Every structure is written in structure tokens, then in C-alpha cells.
Amino acid sequence: MTRCGQPNDPPISMTNKTQPQPSSELCAALAAAHAGARILSEYFADLAAAGIRTKQKGEQYQGIVTQADIEAEHAIVAEIKKAFPGHQFLGEEEHSAKPDADHLWVIDPLDGTNNFAHNIPHFAVSVAYYCNGEPQCGVVLDPSRGDTFTAEQGRGAWWNGERVEVNQHATLPETMIAAGFYYDRGPMMKATLAAIEELFEQNIHGIRRFGTAALDLVQVGLGRFGGYFEYKLSPWDFAAARIFLTEAGGKITTCKGEPLTLTTSTVLASNSLLHQPMLEIVKKHADF
pTM of the full predicted structure? Predict the structure, then answer.
């Protein structure tokens, strides 16, 4: 992995099926993701036991979800600080370091909050390390299924220790596409639906919308989806999955084809082969 001012480990070939020894940064990311996941799992079990709350108790229910979010972020940060006390953090809840910090951890303690709040076991912990704005390693952890997705720059994408790659679908009629909706119920929603309609006109196999961006992105890396798009994502939503996707052979940009940065942005991800045909569709609806 390329690290600031440190010797580089050589990239591994795409035929290498043995996961390389993780760097100290990836070890820290894994420990942190598991620390956050333990807290989420405890809260999720409590929420599942209680069932869906009524509307009258909505505030109390949301308070529990928010507490899970905050406690998980604290646990993640504390774990990373054990190894790297001088590093900075950018997160959804309480950390707002600059995106171009020399040593930056971008964390989402609970990606898929609505799923979590409605007892749907499809959410994730996302932890990524960036050096001077460049992605170095990342972990996406799915507590419900016990899946761990890891990647390091130049060293491949790994799912539970198995090397993975994007699919080789070259045309839209042979693939499945995923999409995400932001909370907006106005022009952005209409733009998303318009893009989906046009994708269906290309005879894609179908559209899937699961509500957890990090897990949607890693599914592209696994080869299950040929592409994914969403018209508004925060950097912690995609920071770790981005590395996994590109190390699996995929491509990720904004929905206008511009380089992705650690700012709130539109996101288009693909297996690389489908990037241009998808871009032609999602770009025309991106001005809303």
C-alpha cells in the first residue's frame, strides 16, 4: 500500500488469490469496524426485540438509533487512535477534519440508518484511510451477514479473504443496476426516477434499491451489479467502498464523469465497461 513517506509494498497481480499481509492501517481499520459493529449489533437486537415503534413513539425510537450511531463512531475513533493518535477524522456524527488532511480517517458508523431503524438487517460500518486526499485502504463490514470487505491500494479487493473482481458485462441488456435515493422528495427524486426509466428502456435485467450505499458499491465490486448511481452521497458513504470497487477493477466518478473527491457529490460506479453507457443516461438528468 502506498503510504506517505514510507516504503511501498509491491502491487499484487490479479491472479493472486492469497490475501497479502494487511498493513498497520488496514489492521486498525478492521479493529475499528468490528468495534463499531459490536455496538450496532447490540442496539439492533434491542430494537428488533421491541418491534417497530408507533408513530407516537417515533422520537424515542429515533433517539435509540442516534445513540447507536454516536456510540459506534466513538468506538471506531478510539480504536484507531490506539494505533495512530495524531491522525484526523471525518465522520457523519461528530468529526469534521478537512478532506485534504495528511492522514485522514473517513468513517460512517452506521450506513443504512433507515434500514436499521425499521429492523431491516441491511446496514454497514464503513472505515477508510486517506493520505493527502488519496485513498489508501478501506473496510466495509456488514454486521448482519458477517461479511467483511477490505481493500488496499494496489493490493486487490477481498471479500471474507477471497479475491473478487467486477463482472465483465459489456452492455446494459446483460446486467443488473443498483440505485439510491437521497431524502429529497422533489427534483432529485424525479431525476432519479427519470434515469431509472431510461435504464429500463435499455432492457437491463432490473433495478435494485437496498438503501445502504456502501453495500451497493461493494456489490458492483463483487460482480453482482454492473453499475450503481445516486445523485447525492456524503464522502463517508462511499470513502471505503470506493477503494474496494476500484481494486476490484471497477470505475467510480461523479454522475457527470468528473473525478470523485471527499465532498458531498453525485456518484456513478460501474464495472468500467458499462461506465460510458451509464454516464450518458445519468448525466443528462443530473441538473436538477
Answer: 0.90
Residue range 217-236: mean pLDDT, rounded: 97
Check which CATH number belongs to the domain holding 102 and give it: 3.30.540.10
Q: Which domain holds residue 87?
A: 24-164
Please, how many CA atoms are within 13 Å of residue 217, restricted to the half-sphere of its CB? 37
Tell which of 140, 164, 188 closes a domain: 164
Residue 128 lies in a domain: yes
Residue that finishes a domain, picked among 164, 194, 227:
164
Residues in Cβ contact with 57 at an 8 Å cutoff, skipping those fewer than 6 apart: none
Looking from the CA of 264 toward its CB, the CA atoms found within 13 Å total 7
CB atoms within 10 A of CB 100: 12
**pLDDT exceeds 50 at position 119:** yes
Task: State the Cα–Cα distance between residues 275 and 280, nearest whole angstrom.
Answer: 9
Q: How far apart are CA 99 and CA 104, in angstroms?
A: 7
| 2-42 pLDDT tens trace | 445 343 555 555 556 788 899 999 999 999 999 999 999 99
